[in-house]
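Record pair follows.
FIRST:
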Amino acid sequence: MKFLQFKVLLVVFAVFCAACVGENRIERSSGNANTNVNIPVVDPAATPPANTVMVDMVEPELDVPYVPTHEMVVDEMLKMAQVTGNDVLYDLGSGDGRIPITAAQRFGTRGVGIDLNPQRIREANANAEKAGVTDKVRFIEGDLFETDFSEATVVTLYLLPSVNLKLKPKLLEMKPGTRVVSHNYNMGDDWKPEQTRTIKTPAGSTHYVYFWRVPERSGAK
């Protein structure tokens, strides 16, 4: 009887061991098959870690959209202003820098471009380097209304009517005789241009160029 009980116990023990070994094999098999790396889900609204660098990609607020000036218009603007190598030309809203660069290439004019958009400034500097006139021109990232351009003998601009009118008082404070040339937009009824030219491009677009000289200020001796 005792031998029978002992035999039963051995069978139960063997079954128990077999079950343990099976579970262990299942666990090992599951562990080997699961090779994926757990990636924590990040809540977009959560506060970033302290060592995370946040880059502000906000574009500057521009008064005037960028529209490149046609080369035919550039030529006429420089011609109307009678630009020479003795001039200092400031281009307000200079974009890719084509007006100061063209003047430097043709006449040796010293030029400065002012633009609020850093992308345009990078393009202008690259274009100046390509044209080989970095010793003649430079470009300033800044606001037209806060930047001093009083040394200019020629001012070129392609802005908007409202910006021209806002800029007009600053232009009228410049040295008398300073030449001002605007693409497409005038300075209002109280400052008539000395010359107006109409240009038609081969593509059929029509452009206007206006020319002024800064007058003597009232009461000036």
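SECOND:
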Amino acid sequence: MAIPGRNNPNPFLLKPCIVGIFLIAAIYAFAPASPGQKRKSNTQPKPSPAPNSELQRVGPPPAAPILQKREQDVGPSEVISVDTTEVMLPVTVRDGNGRLVADLKREDFHVFEDDREERLSELALRQVPVDVILMVDSSSSVAENLDDFRKAAMEFAAQLDDKDRISLIKFDDRVQLLQEWTQSRFQFQRALNRIEPGMFTRLNDALVLAAREQFGNTQSRRAIILLTDGVDSGRGASTAEQALEAVLNAQASVYVVSNGEISRVEKQSQLNALLNSDSVTFNQMRIDDLREGLRALDESEVKLTRLADATGGRIYKPASFARLNDAYREVAEELRHQYALYYTPSNKTHDGSFRHVRVVTKNPQYRTSTRIGYYAPQR
């Protein structure tokens, strides 16, 4: 005998039960968790952002300051200004034959700021350490000769004083800091071995970033030694004028080891061969490219010379990569025999203006090299 309501359940009684079960499940699902409970989430945790360094992982560099709008565009951390209590000028003196003069006294110098002579407070020869950035253009124009650069760079580092510091930056389509400041020749050699060739040349960006990011507030002399043909690919955010201003802001001297003459000889040889061939018309595109390359080299040499002269440095033009040693040896010799002139400016105004500086000696046969000026502090 069948039991009523057991083997044949009433559908009207089941429906409310089913609806109740769904309501309880919905209430539990949307109820807020108790303070001691944490519900699991299907959302995957986001990875922590990777460390970011302007020199090691370069995007577009910060906008270079504009001279006529310094108060708006230049922050206090972007300009290394000189304390008005004392100015230090690294000065190189050469005789009429280009030889370094290293036996001058304080009374042999005259310093002029904005055409007003200043009183020298101190003169020191090789008593101020130097911070040197070696910058290498690792684009296609240098890529096949990086071993020559490595050898010359190591010989240069070996000639520095124990208190001097050195760092290494390479640039192509990127700008990379390969070695932070160090006094270790071993660390520097390891960094040299990490240089890899690239494409294009962001020269102006590299100078802006090196000047702004690498030099701190130390009282040392500052130098940049730049190996490049000077042809910027135009793919960066900085101009040659902005690069020069950034270096002047950093109070650094730029020594250019230009491989432009090496590139010029190669391009001119290729051009002559094509012009003397029987297929000038067929090779017209290549001929035009070579001519444009020679024009770009001429233009870059003018800019590099201006950069070196304005910052108190010098430009070297080795005839081959095998002669890089000679250029770097001369730079090391100059840094060892550089004078450091100190004076207190008579102009006490804190207006952030650019002060033009000129240094002469009592001997008219001597030629002096120093930067063209400095930026005064700004309140």
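COMMENT: Confidence is low (pLDDT under 50) at residues 1-19, 21-84.
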